[in-house]
Inverse folding.
């Protein structure tokens, strides 16, 4: 059985990269992402090209901020969308591109970090189990 490589529309690629379709289109127009056209004339990006570009993009972003030192490599920068405080525990939600991450932590940690809805934050994930769905 021969599988065809998955391709993504500009809109799908934008969602996966956490940018607007206009930004993804400008990157394609500028030659940063290689595209081809399907039978219907839609611009598509091959999955391997999109994967390579997403790694390149992740490595090139940042640099303007103070360096953060951590062993957790899976970083999801985003915006805090909810903070629920209990007497001792708290729940914080972050929207990082297409990803919604929820963390349970102490109320004290939330207060020390000054986490509030609307502020930038980075969720870092370190796990012994990673599930991949297709």
């Amino acid at each position: 059985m021969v599988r065809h490589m998955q391709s993504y529309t500009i809109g799908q690629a934008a969602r996966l990269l956490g940018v607007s379709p206009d930004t993804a289109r400008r990157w394609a127009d500028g030659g940063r992402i290689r595209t081809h056209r399907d039978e219907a004339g839609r611009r598509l990006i091959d999955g391997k090209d999109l994967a390579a570009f997403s790694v390149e993009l992740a490595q090139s972003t940042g640099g303007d901020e103070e360096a953060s030192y951590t062993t957790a490599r899976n970083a999801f920068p985003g915006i805090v969308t909810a903070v629920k405080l209990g007497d001792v525990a708290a729940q914080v939600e972050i929207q990082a591109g297409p990803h919604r991450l929820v963390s349970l932590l102490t109320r004290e940690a939330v207060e020390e970090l000054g986490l509030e809805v609307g502020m930038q934050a980075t969720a870092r994930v370190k796990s012994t189990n990673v599930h991949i769905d297709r």
Summary: The chain has a mean pLDDT of 84. Residues 47-60 form the longest helix (14 residues). The beta strands are 7-9, 36-37, 43-46, 74-85, 89-96, 99-106, 120-125.
